[in-house]
Hints:
This protein is α/β, with parallel strands linked by helices. It contains seven helices and 15 strands.
Amino acid sequence: MKVKLIFLGTGGSFSYYNRNYPMLVIEINDFYYIFDVGPGTDKALIRSGVKPSRIKAIFITHIHSDHIFGLPLMAINFYNLYNLNCRECINLYVPKWYIEDIDTLFTFGGHREKVIFKNVFFTNYDGSTPIYHDEYIDVYSMEMQHSIKSVAYRIVTKNNRIIIYTGDTRPNNRLLTFSENADILVHEATFPEDREEQAIRTGHSTTSQAIEDGLKAKVKILVLYHLGAQIFKNKEFNVNSMKVLVPDDYEVLVLH
């Protein structure tokens, strides 16, 4: 079973112009799972060849604007431009903390077209049981430490590949346990090393903290994500036995 990670947006709320807001797509057997929906997600999905009718589920980590403001326009454009004239055909998974916020989001645009989404508000944030299950993956969530409530996701494929998507978080022990021995850890790295105090204060991580987490969790591949204004001389390097990747927007990582 071939698994693809499509990095449609590798930036955060403040990044260089060449990095979109956070949006990660996992493709398995021509079906798609989307993690976070930053502004511009609808056009990025179409540009990358993602077919709206093949989207199985969307997972939101938290409700900061750079992670959810793409939802109303996705609803409008998929419903009106791409003929996704269906009701509740895309499952939208959101922590139950944010029921009212998601409803309010659509009052500013796409309220009629939001019928394409079936809202699933889950309450399991401890990683013990799946919040989502189908013939290809199981998805678990774990509460993180951000400036507001947020979760990370653990995706386990049927051929036992493990992918962790942190969302926004400062380093914490729950993340290390959740990520242990993962094949891929997609870890936010909002700040450079010299801004660690600001990172901790705002519920984010630095590049070096992300690398340290990857080493402690003994992951095989660390992907630095949700980048700020850092400039990397190398987009791929090793730290001990761990491979570190710094993808650009629209790059694809394939797991066989």
